[in-house]
Batch of 3 targets.
Target 1
Amino acid sequence: MNAEYNFAYLDEQTKRMIRRALLKGVAIPGYQVPFASREMPMPYGWGTGGVQVTAACLTPKDTLKVIDQGADDTTNAVSIRKFFEKTAGVAVTEETREATVIQTRHRIPEQDLDETQILVYQVPIPEPLRFLEPRETETRKMHALEEYGLMHVKLYEDIARHGHIATSYAYPVKIEGRYVMDPSPIPKFDNPKMEMAALQLFGAGREQRIYAVPPYTQVVSLDFEDHPFERGGAQQPCGLCGAHDSYLDEVIMDDAGTRMFVCSDTDYCRARREAGHIGAMGVPNAEDAA
Amino acid sequence: MINIENVSKNFTLHNQNSVVIPVMQGANMLVQPGECVGLTGSSGAGKSTLMRMVYGNYLTQAGRIMVGDLDIVTALPRQILDLRRDTLGYVSQFLRVVPRVPTLDVVSEPMLAVGVTREVAHERARILLTKLRIPERLWSLSPLTFSGGEQQRVNIARGFAHEYPAMLLDEPTASLDIANRETVLSLIEDAKARGAAIIGIFHDEAARARVCDREVDVSIFTPKAA
Amino acid sequence: MTPLLQVTDISKYYGSRLGCRGVNFDLYPGEVLGIVGESGSGKSTLLNCLAGHQEPDSGAVIFDTRADGPKDTVTMSEPERRMLSRTDWAFVHQNARDGLRMGVSAGGNVGERLMAVGARHYGDIRGTAIDWLDKVEISDERTDDRPSQFSGGMQQRLQIARNLVTGPRLIFMDEPTGGLDVSVQARLLDLLRGLVRELGLSAIVVTHDLAVVRLLADRLMVMKDGHVIETGLTDQVLDDPQHGYTQLLVSSVLQV
């Protein structure tokens, strides 16, 4: 850890301010708590909200995992992991099971999380109604008065236009039967996982909002009686590990357009392969083929 | 029953030095159910004025106008509206309608207003329009495009669509040929037969003689010049 | 019979400038009240105060609610008033853009109020929306089109359908035919009259057009400089105006 920085970069007062916001968020699941987002050494849109929440939660004994679209080895995941190694000196890991704090962009790990873990989401636009109702004054009132008809109008429009609800990510959910929330741009495939044992925290740096879903909280994806929520899923198993139940990425193999589908969650795929599962295009115990 | 008691009216023209024009004073008239009273008097004597006062279209400055149990002079607007819908019919000289509404609907409207179903209303409207010799091909058109005589007949059809216990008829036979005038007069006789109290203005003496039981010359109510 | 709306002594000032003052009237079920006046008369201020869009400085607007009987909507809590304006009240704006979601389909616009009060069956919502579009003479082929693709008259009719779908008992209208072609106005007026009669609606219509008010309103209030200067049956106020300003107004109408 670099001694020039306070632990996890942020000063203690800022961390306390963020923790107060987090406590409010936990007390009112799904409610967007405004907070004074700080200048971070990365631009808006690169996870500053998630980073601030993680920074406020980390203790020296934590083990941190950072994923981006399920992968530990993309540029963003690597940068943020290195950032915390430098400023907090905490242990880092790629194994979901080993981590105590997991910061994620746009995916929930396939591996079930437990009560000792915290999942921190990076959120671009926290307001689920934003694109239907641009006025912040109005959306705040709508949340306060539980006026969510407009949310269903969006789903209605989808069905009218496409025959089914076309929203495939950032699919709106209702928390504990009260607040409608944007779960961040995770695929709707991940929505059912949001009813979990771990604490889920959401940070939007540019929009300056924090919200939370405590463990074992009811999370219901919005739908219609005659068009119930469908999580979707792959039509085929992972090419590397053969998993049928994980979210897959499509990978183009060559200029001819040959493609394979592999688990988006790299750690999950690796663990399955280590355990002996082999997919159609996989090689025993090999690293990523693509 | 219509009872006009000691009624007076004047007009105040504020934009012409607030000149006050008294047009009626001490008017009295009683019309029994089944009776038709004809208003006479020269043009400008106040025939239409009196009729409009009974309808509530003009304000009355003094006196009482009883239509059934309601005194028009002191009634609330709401009460007059109810009266006009259920009890008091008025056939004016001019056809006033919403543009582009078909004739059949124009004639049906008073019936719909009292709760008659659309089918029944349309059926009765057809009967009336047929009686008044409005060709069927015109029923789906707006009457505003019709000739003066045709408009008058649509006006009458509308006026007689609902069986009002009291009716005010302002020149109902004007601009009608003999056949149609005959039809209108028999409509009036039917109304009298069912007990309606009617006040009418007829320029045509023969028509007046036929349906009116009495005549009242309204010029006796005109205030004498100062 | 209890009045549907009892308005007592409504006043609204903009700083020291008078919006409207001392307005009193009752409105009964099935009645249409017209409010006319020229620009600056205070009629729009009054309408906004009645409909809860603005808060009056004094006075009461007592509405006979379904659940709790007569209640003063001025002192009602905001959530209650917002609920009222989505269910038992309707507001037709002069400019359809203010009363519609231009980025949402016609069906979605009509269905929104239903979804806002808990409807969760897509098929039923769509069916009801199509019924209402039919009532306002919008072809069901246009159900999925956006209002931005509609003519002005159609947008106004869509606004009416959107408002009436929850069966309100009181409808506020601000220049409902303003800006529409004359030919379109006529059909809209007839539609409004039919709906008022069929559904037993009460309506308060603000307009500067005397011809519209004669055809639409049973009773009339004439406003000038923030005050009501004359009130009565529409035909009586227009045919036998008592106040000097009303006489001026009536005599100024151009003949066609």
Target 2
Amino acid sequence: MLEFRQITKTFPDGTKALKDVNLKINKGEFVVIVGLSGAGKSTLIRCVNRLVQPTSGSLIANGKDVTTMNEKMLRQWRTEVGMIFQNYNLVKRSSVLRNVLAGRLGHTGTLRSMLGLFSAADIDLAKRSLERVGISEKTYNRADQLSGGQQQRVSIARALCQQPTIMLADEPVASLDPPTSHSVMRDLKRINREDGITTLVNLHFIDMAQEYADRIIGMRAGEVVYDGPADKVSERTFEEIYGRKIRPDDLRGGVE
Amino acid sequence: MAQPANPTQPKKPSFKESGGLKSLLGLIALLLVYVAASTHLGIEPSKFASGETWRQMADLLIRMGPYERIASCKNANIVWGEPDADTEAPWSGKTDLDKVNAVCEQGKTLYWYRSDYLEEQVSYTRDVWGPLMQTLRMAIVGAFLGALLAIPFSLLAARNLVRSKAVYHTVRIILNLIRTIPDLVLAAVLSGALGLGALPGVVALTIFSFALLVKLLSESIEAIDPGPLEAMRACGANWLQMVTYGVVPQVLPQFLAYWTYVLEVDVRASTVLGFVGAGGIGMTLMADLNLTRFRNVGSIIAIILLLVVVMEYVSTKVRERLV
Amino acid sequence: MKTSLQKWMASLWTVLAAIILYWAFSGLETHAVNLSETLPRAGRIFYLMATEFDSAYLPDLVAKIIETIEMAILGTLLASLLAVPFGFLAAQNMVKRLAGLGKFLLSLIRTFPEIILALVFIKGVGPGPLAGIFAMGVHSIGMLGKLYSEAIESIDKGPQEALMSTGANRIQQIWFAVIPQVLPEFASYALYRFEINSRAAAVLGIVGAGGIGAPLIFAIQKPAWGRVAIILVAIIFVVSLIDIGSGWLRRKLV
């Protein structure tokens, strides 16, 4: 469903973030990408919605090449890809509901969206998305009144509101405490199961990777060094991926 | 585990609660103010729709440059040309008045670029060198005297140095009152009182710089680390010693930076003080304006712009190195 | 601890400063500073201001002051709205390479002295408040545009990236992610500008652009010091009020 073909990314300052990456992601898979900082995880998933433009190679999604899409097709594609970030990236001064409705912006005309004229169906979808992540009671609060975990939930709701086929998560739990991290990962997993949304998550916590992933991809220095089912992975594998012994801060700990 | 679907949906906050009412009232107030102000003043913004307005303004701006106006016609388009180049043109070979009529008949306004005008404008710089230097002198002296006066007063205006609340508040209030007077108004009044020339300008700039510097400096002083001050007080130093050894070292770089900024503002201000007779290149500008010597006015404006830009650049560089 | 080089540099700067100061002081025509003449003169004028305080002028004064404030309001209103697109065009995170050009244009507008701008507008629309409003407006666009662009450049870029990833177009990104962040700052800057413009409005009248400036100059030229006094008091009073009000509003915004 999603295919990386010889994807390479070299940044203007010379950094080779991705070197000839080849991957096939199947529909409905829950994939966790692990690796040290700077291994290229962020760059890799940002290629999927072209927040990063690969220097060469092609990214085939549903038969179309993401790397060569024009403006309009790209925006259309992006509405199908939901993304959540380490820093939640909510608009702090806006209400939770407005933040979630932002997921429908790609489907709403510019003028209508600016006047706040979202369709009743859209508003309903937003509210239901909030219900699914269990945070309805905060619908009308300002986004900055919420805790970190709650804000991440809202951003998941925003992604859900897009009704995406793919979900990307860039270090979604790095800023959260252990119990909240597990809570968020469980939500992601549940949504993956219930809606069949292909999910790609960046994590640097290897215990969480083992617990939640169907498939694990290990990256080092811009290359894929491991790609296999989660149950076949051991601590040894991680040591090979990281190129060093496992340390305590590679583990999240604290299962609820 | 995520909660099951919430049976009690949160109530959507009423329009009043969500702050919508406040914003709406604010906007209505703004609109009312706009309508009231413009009708009271009798403004017709529609004047700007007419090309004539723009043409008039453009006319003034063009004549401040090295251009000769051959003919100025109402509701006509601006056209450029070269002296005597268009022998085919309807106005060649005609007397001045006929020339004007010929041009206007064509619905055009004509300006000619003249390189001799440009030379004239550039050499005018030499003529205004005196007033220009006077402007700079005014700014420097004003900033310097202002700083001299500001130092003792900013100590009085700093909450952490003044024990008496009465003194602090009095100084603050007087300072704020001085800062409400626009510098040109001050210069105008002073020039009426003290006569034309550089003196009222210097006094105005001194007062203006003084007030600005005291504000900036006192805020700086209030923000310093109280530690050294406490230490000084503890070992029995008197107020003056505390200031010299505890306050001055901490605020000196900031003071120099502020003073550079004030100097920059003063240079900018001193260029226009002449408008009200307070000396400097502004007086020359006013004189030329009244004599409708627009090219001279243009030269002076260019000089002022250059001066201000250079001053701004130098000031920024110096302040960067200080802080 | 200062190195000996730094100390040497500091002494060099001090010597340079002393030379410049000497040049400045000596160049000014000191014959004008005849204290024995000017001080009593100034004293006499203060006396006149106090004793001949022209309270009869109050009704006309109030009308002119209102006119001045209205000028400042309209000028600031105009500028605070028009400066928004300029601010965006000068912000590096919005228009990348064009930002340099935008900043240059804004700084050009800013450096042009307001008074001269007023004169140009007087030529265009005739003397009166309209010229003053547009002079203040244009000048303020330069000032506000710069402040706005700095505010825009300092925002958190995360929310905008997130909206881009949902498929929103540029305009939607700006409306939903950038504007909510910068609007309070914009309003605060606009209010600050209003404080400054209320002073400028008093000044522009001196060249005929409406407001209290012209009556003030006439009073100085007569001279009618009592009237000058009451005009000054009015200016101080009104501007102080505006400063206080604007300061209060700005604190509530941030």
Target 3
Amino acid sequence: MKIVVCVKQIPDPASPYQLDPENHFVVRPEDQVLDDTDRYGVEVALQLADAVGDEGSVTLLSMSPGGSQQGIRQALAMGADGAILVEDPTLRGADALTTSRILAAAASRAGADLVITGTESTDGYTGVVPQQMAEIMGVPSLTFARKVEHVDGKIRIERQTQAGYDVVEGALPAVLSVTSGVVEPRYPTFKGIMQAKSKPVETLTASDLDVSPSSGQSIVSVESVPSRQAGEVVEDDGEGHLKILAKLEEVKVV
Amino acid sequence: MKTWVFSTEAEGAASSSALEALTKARSFGGDLGAVHVGEGSESALNELGAHGATSVMQVAGDASAAAIAAAMATAVDTEQPDLIIFGMGNLDRDVAGRLSARLGKPVLANAVDVMIDGGIVQVANEILGGSTKIVTQFAEGAPAIAITRPKAFAAEPSGGGSPVVNALNVPDVGHAGDVAVLSSHAESSEGPDLEAAAIVVSGGRGLGEASKFEMMAELAGLVGGAVGATRAVVDAGWVPYSYQVGQTGKTVKPDVYLACGISGAMQHLVGMKDSTTIIAINKDPEAPIFGVADLGIVGDVHNVVPALIEALKAQG
């Protein structure tokens, strides 16, 4: 089973990201990191591949207009076999549909039996890329999975719902999106980090994949919103609960 | 202007997101329709009608997202809607994404407003934790596909009557539709409805362990509130997903939001920052939650919350 995991490199969430004042794209520094929510997809892929033995392989797939690789190496260090990087400056600021066209074409080209993604990225959070990819590839989508099993050649998941969960089964090839609760991602070992340096990373461009970047949307305006004012912040001196009680009484809820 | 909204049925009701979108779309004028997935009970259909939908395309509840998107794409060809509005539900996102790819049209997600400017559809998004508003317009021609955030608009009935209902037959989409729901499971949550409660008592990682949610439930019970949680603790399996407040969970706007041991990650803030009063308890004085709190207590939730519970009990 050939598993392709889509991962995204994003500006470190610890430092707030910024928009380019001219084109309103997210400013992407050189040292982008692996989107933390993608570690779960990588872990699911490694476990599914392990379960099928030698037949299983895990390839990372990422679109990286700026050529950044740091985040990819983080995921390779977890144990993935290699990576495909679509490196193309024309993809800067690509919308979700262009991203999906690129990723779907690259996954199909790689002969993926299963494509795994997170449910949405931390920096863009459009949350429709897995479904768009599945539609373009003509395969089933198994989305919002909080548990994943490979049963009788099919993928069976627990799909998160408002009321609880559904057990859903789909045929391969398929696209699977996983939540951040699905598994406990492993930490890279020292050996893994060393090995990651020599793992194969194939680079492609948009034209290699026959996709012409397009954007069916344009930004009209960007303005700052008057933000909520912070109120009183006090150190708890053992009486903090009384402050809360007084506030609850002030707004008349108790 | 012709607008469609997407609705899924749950317990005889239409999606709240669909009723909210219909209310908003009435201000655009023109034709209002709904695509409704599920049983198609009279109560759900009448709700859609009462909020302004004059026609409903009814889809069987067991159709795959791929089949629904294919059926909608065919209907788009003949009916030519200008705008299709989805909510943030799982099936909403599955169908919106597929429809977008099928039609080759972009989808704009997380909209907090939808506007029509000279016949062109625009959506507003809040980014960077709500500090920046971006307005984007569709440049690709109809239909514009938008996914709106919960409670972006208030739902108000228009007094409309029963809609005209037509079955929307789904085609065989082959392999893409080869998915089946084997079983559905409910995970109960106690107390008042989180999205409607006047007080929400929410817990995060700072509580330390799952069992501390009993303390949240006790506190919520004393003030007649509902219990919420952050994505981190839902992902850790402490409480079910139905408790989750934030970007990928519920959006709440209670009179009082009491955040206990919650740092205030952006993904959480977008789900609760419009609460009337926010009170936060956190050990870390630098926690972002204090930036939006009307009252912040820098302290240990394990001391402050039990003391608050005792004080409320003493008050009777």
